[in-house]
């Protein structure tokens, strides 16, 4: 974690890759697998649940 004035563009890109791109691509892969499995098993009722943290709604100014 770094102060906003000390954060480089590379760090910003890494945060976005981990927090946005990672879950998106994982969901895409799993969704494809779930569709294939659903075609083989009619009783298969898959769900995708993404869990976030409170940091999406609240700032953490004292976090180190």
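-> sequence recovered:
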């Amino acid at each position: 974690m770094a102060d906003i004035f000390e954060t480089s563009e590379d760090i910003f890109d890494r945060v976005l890759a981990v927090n946005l791109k990672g879950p998106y691509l994982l969901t895409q892969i799993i969704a494809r697998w779930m569709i294939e499995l659903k075609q083989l098993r009619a009783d298969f009722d898959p769900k995708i649940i993404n869990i976030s943290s409170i940091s999406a709604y609240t700032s953490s100014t004292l976090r180190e």
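DSSP finds one helix and no strands in the chain.
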